[in-house]
């Protein structure tokens, strides 16, 4: 798309409005500070925010976990995934400051006295504040087995009352394993923390392109007029990872790819893609619309499901070769499921959610395929497709037909291309976790999962999950696919069953001075005839 960003851009007032933002006198407490998530995501995100001046003035960060370690070991661990380019003196000095404001205390998750100790540490920091005001943001980077005791102890031992400040709690998935367990978990957490104080992370809601969906859909009249069953044939939302579950087999085998990716990340993307226009950008208005559309989706049918498990290939191990995985496991590492939305906008349009580990590439995208144009003047003309690439290399591109340049009258599929790194040259795309932690500090719930959203998401997936878990007889056996492939060989027939027609654009293109990749004869083969 060739428009240049204008000097004056459109404003989205309520998206930027400030909520009850934690500004001064704030401590961020990371529980599970010794773990993988904290090391790989939470601390790098906190540093990213700190470096760019987005954390509250005078912020302190306190790590808490069972592991005993001194501050030096803690600092080494939490900075191991933080990248500072050589020669970037400013970032290096910010990193030293970041270490100075980060301290660690060890303690258990189930015993109350440990949380008493944590509270003393927090009070000691707060005793240096100039005013009575104090705020605490608790980040639970913990396994779900300890969510409930930790939430309870935090409330009993480490909670500051509203007259002096605010306490907020960020919780990470998994939020249960099915509808019943999710309700039990939510109910237990709600005994101690209100919905307003709770921020349930689905980090796909913090990704730039997921956030862009609202703007793409509702700020472009050109898009809104074709966003329904009259123009759209089918939609695919795809997650592909080029590595397996090595090292996480124990966790993964208990959950499987549907709980890991589809029930949360891909369904969140689907809900924003298909919801009606919210009354405003206020969190509850957006989440009301998401819940409404999700409630129109019935539980997934077994016949609308394809399950796979990767096997050894190309020198890479199969899923079952992992020692932490039971040798006869039928846990799916690949799933494609088709969802149907029974409302006037979407009746009859298949939404195919597909996700897999150990595939041929890393890619997350939404692919909206439009219906055929009326035949007659054209023969075998390609369908339009709108692709929203969430990662890597954020992009929006529209595949459309154009006349081949020259004296012949032929049509050829090509793309209108908004690839971010080419279009927004100096833009820094924030990490999802940076964006979400900042939202929690601001008290903005728009990009967090509300309790009723979670409930309806589990209703859609629970029957199929119980079938896969073997609760209603023998579990289905996933089909094998080789490590590094596109997925099960049954995938393409599965997708075409729902009307997807693949087109390949082969017109010789000159990109950044490179020569064409096919000859004009090849073009003749793929061009359609204009009668
Ligand atoms: N950022 C970007 O990626 C941009 C790309 N483009 C260009 O647009 C053009 C078209 O893009 P696009 O449609 O995304 O590309 P592809 O043709 O690669 O992908 C289209 C669809 O076909 C499927 N597919 C891929 N390989 C096979 C296969 N061997 N057999 C059957 N199905 C297959 C993919 O499924 P699956 O993913 O499940 O394998 C995907 O759903 C390309 O030339 C690309 O370079 C333009 C702008 C930006
Ligand atoms: O939640 C999860 O997401 C990651 C993928 O996240 P991304 O931001 O790298 O796309 C996935 O690897 C993991 O299995 C899952 O638990």
UniProtKB/TrEMBL annotation:
Q: Which reaction does it catalyse?
A: D-glucose 6-phosphate + NADP(+) = 6-phospho-D-glucono-1,5-lactone + NADPH + H(+)
Locate the Glucose-6-phosphate dehydrogenase NAD-binding domain: which residues?
A: 29-212
Instruction: Report the protein name in the record.
Output: Glucose-6-phosphate 1-dehydrogenase
Show the Pfam families listed in the entry: G6PD_C (PF02781), G6PD_N (PF00479)
Q: So, what pathway does this thing act in?
A: Carbohydrate degradation; pentose phosphate pathway; D-ribulose 5-phosphate from D-glucose 6-phosphate (oxidative stage): step 1/3
What exactly does this protein do?
A: Catalyzes the rate-limiting step of the oxidative pentose-phosphate pathway, which represents a route for the dissimilation of carbohydrates besides glycolysis.
Record domain Glucose-6-phosphate dehydrogenase C-terminal: where: 214-500
Tell me the protein family, please. Belongs to the glucose-6-phosphate dehydrogenase family.
EC number(s) stated in the UniProt entry for this protein: 1.1.1.49
Its source organism is: Rhodofomes roseus
- HAMAP family tied to this protein: G6PD (MF_00966)
Task: Name the UniProt key words of this record, in alphabetical order.
Answer: Carbohydrate metabolism, Glucose metabolism, NADP, Oxidoreductase
Q: Is NADP among this UniProt entry's keywords?
A: yes
């Amino acid at each position: 798309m060739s428009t240049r960003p204008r000097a004056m851009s459109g404003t989205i007032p309520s998206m930027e409005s400030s909520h009850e933002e934690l500004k001064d006198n704030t401590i961020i407490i990371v529980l599970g500070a010794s773990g993988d998530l904290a090391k790989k995501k939470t601390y790098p995100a906190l540093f990213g925010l700190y470096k760019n001046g987005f954390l509250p003035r005078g912020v302190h960060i306190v790590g808490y976990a069972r592991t005993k370690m001194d501050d030096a070991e803690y600092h080494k661990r939490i900075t191991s995934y933080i990248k500072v380019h050589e020669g970037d003196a400013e970032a290096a000095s910010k990193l030293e400051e970041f270490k100075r404001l980060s301290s660690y205390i060890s303690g258990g998750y189930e015993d109350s006295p440990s949380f008493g100790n944590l509270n003393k540490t927090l009070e000691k920091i707060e005793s240096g504040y100039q005013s009575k005001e104090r705020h605490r943001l608790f980040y639970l980077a913990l396994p779900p087995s300890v969510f409930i005791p930790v939430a309870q102890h935090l409330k009993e031992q480490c909670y500051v009352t509203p007259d002096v400040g605010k306490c907020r709690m960020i919780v990470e998935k998994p939020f249960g394993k099915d509808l019943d367990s999710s309700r039990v978990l939510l109910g237990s957490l709600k005994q101690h923390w209100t919905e307003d104080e709770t921020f349930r992370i689905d980090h796909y809601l913090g990704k730039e392109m997921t956030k862009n969906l609202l703007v793409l859909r509702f700020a472009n009249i050109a898009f809104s007029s074709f966003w329904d069953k009259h123009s759209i044939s089918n939609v695919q939302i795809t997650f592909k990872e080029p590595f397996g579950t090595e090292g996480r087999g124990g966790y993964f085998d208990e959950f499987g790819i549907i709980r890991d990716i589809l029930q949360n990340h891909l369904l969140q993307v689907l809900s924003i893609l298909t919801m009606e226009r919210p009354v405003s950008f206020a969190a509850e208005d957006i989440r009301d619309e998401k819940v409404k559309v999700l409630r129109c989706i019935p539980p997934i049918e077994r016949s609308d499901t394809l399950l796979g498990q990767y096997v050894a290939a190309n020198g890479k191990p199969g899923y079952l070769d992992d020692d932490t995985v039971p040798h006869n496991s039928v846990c799916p590492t690949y799933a494609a499921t088709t969802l149907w939305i029974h409302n006037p906008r979407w009746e009859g349009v298949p939404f195919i959610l597909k996700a897999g580990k150990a595939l041929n590439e890393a890619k997350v995208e939404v692919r909206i395929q439009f219906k055929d144009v009326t035949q007659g003047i054209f023969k075998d003309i390609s369908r339009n497709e709108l692709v929203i690439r969430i990662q890597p290399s954020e992009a929006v591109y529209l595949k459309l037909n154009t006349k081949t340049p020259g004296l012949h009258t032929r049509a050829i599929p090509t793309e209108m291309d908004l690839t971010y790194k080419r279009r927004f040259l100096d833009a820094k795309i924030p990490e999802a976790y940076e964006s979400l932690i900042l939202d929690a500090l601001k008290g903005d719930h728009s990009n967090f999962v509300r309790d009723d959203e979670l409930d309806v998401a589990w209703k859609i997936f629970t029957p199929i999950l119980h079938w896969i878990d073997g609760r209603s007889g023998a579990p289905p056996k996933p089909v094998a696919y080789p490590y590094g492939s596109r997925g099960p060989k049954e995938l393409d027939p599965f997708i075409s069953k729902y009307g997807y027609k693949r087109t390949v654009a082969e017109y010789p293109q000159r990109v950044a001075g490179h020569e064409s990749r096919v000859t004009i004869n090849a073009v003749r083969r793929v061009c359609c005839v204009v009668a």
